[in-house]
Amino acid sequence: MDFIDPHIHMAARTTDDFLIMAKMGCVMVGEPAFWMGYDRSGTNSFYDYFRQLTEWEPKRTAAHGIQHHCWMGINAKEAEDVGFSREVIAVLPEFLAKPSVLGVGEIGLHKNTPNEVATLLGLIDLAMKTDEQMLFHTPHLEDKYKGTRMILDLLRADSRVDHTRVCIDHCEEHTIRMALDEGYWAGITMYPTSKATPSRTADMVEVYGADRILINSSADWGPSDPFAVPACMFEMRRRGHPESLIRQLVYENPLKFFKQSRNFQFTPRV
Amino acid sequence: MTMPMTASDVLEREFLAVRAKLIEVAATLDRIDRAKDPISEDPRLDKIRRGLELLAGDHKDRAEQLQLIFSLPYEENWRND
Lengths: 270, 81
Fold this sequence. Notes:
heterodimer, A: alpha/beta, B: mainly alpha
């Protein structure tokens, strides 16, 4: 079955990973801008990274028959310096106009600080002024519940935000309901030691249904699994779920969400 | 959405995995007890104890409740701080 990984940081992965993903049936990836494991020293570093995501990565994935889209933004881990963040936000419009860009992301909170909130408000404002979709990173571990609620507070306070064009990502058992109840898409990320697992992801689908759920690997330079989406597909098959449900989760849902971006283009396999 | 498997099927499939995870937790707590410089009070150990108490109960949403034990509290008026 063809599948889409709607959130994966392929710039941090090898071409061998692409090859195996393609053999498993991956036809498209969504790659949000994120933190590369160290803080960048200047706006030009971000500029080059954004060029990598919009110019180089699509070519690398296309070599394996995988279509590539990306999101432009500043990850919360680099959002503490509000002045620096403003400089980076100023270069984003140039990249938001590129043909493979889906919107502003991944943006959000990390340690839930006032400076992170200030940068996030600037990014949300940019997205609203340019009519972009948004992809939200929610914090890790003990900060997730508080940070997710803070993000939802900020979005609820902005009447310009169309909830159906927003994904609240990295949801877990204690945050998924609040995202879905307010009309957002809910992303579930499967990691080896944090976030969710393929089994718990299948559990959440059984509890909340598959509508507006996006499952992803968010694989990056740290402990992560670029094959997490097919692992969840396998788990759901083992439990006896129908192929139609699995296809909705790993193919139709990402397409439905991505299609809301004006730059989105996809050629299905024939 | 219905769960296609029966409760008996799930237990049959997961029993050994759950057993192994519980033993791993038990062995880790033993290891902490055996280690040098004993810990008298640590909020992390308290959260682990509360989590184990939760698992022993009959809640229907154990995973969600366990997540909340390991979460910082949210304050409604955070924007005024």
